[in-house]
User: Fold this.
Amino acid sequence: MNIDETLTAKGYTPAQHVPEIFGQSRIIESITIHHWGLTGQTHDGVNNFFINGPGSTSAHYVVSAGRVNCLVAPEDAAWHAGNAHGNATSIGIECRPEASDGDYQTVADLVSWLRSRYGADLPLIPHRYWQATACPGVWDLDRINRLTTPIAPAGDLTEQDSYLSSLSDQDQQNIYHAQGRIDAGVAELITVARAIAAKLGAPLPTTTLVKGSDQPAVYAWDGGNGYRELDYPEFVALIQTGATLRTVDQAVIDKAVN
Assistant:
């Protein structure tokens, strides 16, 4: 799910302050569907209102066809429901009032993603459930549910996918890109690894990874203990330091293969 997390709404309540403000802890129990008012308003205009406006209202997400902005983290309480219990327990999604097919699909994709993280049975609730309002206008919550795609909950994921699901979307994208660069160089790097072992009689430098071409395991040299398979958090931590298979200790590699 491609979610832009670079913007932050002016008004919201951090999770640790939810009990004192709303009288209960922040617990995610539902997803509230809103529309952002008059037709013709733009996605960026709505973002700007929440970021630079009076700061009296906010939403967790602003969504239109092909675009999703997260303005308040789901773990915190956005000011969207007009109701203390709704703010404390629901995730608020602001949707384009024109409700095109593309708008519906993007909202449904976000709902699928949220349910994969916070509970497959999270119900959709119209804003008018929390207070007297016409919101969410023409939006059909049953149609959103029909368009959603079940995603395996974290308990059914591999170690790798379970760990990735705990990261922000930007961090996930960074990891995928780094792993793609590693995959692209597997054959060349296995050759380099063999050359180092043959010519220097020594293991690869500590910060170098060796990824088998026939299995998804990642290994690193662990001193006197030899090569050790890394678990996925260790792999992520190493990648985040800037280590790559192609560029780490390039002088040693050059010496080994020349």
About this structure: The chain has two domains: 12-151, 160-257.
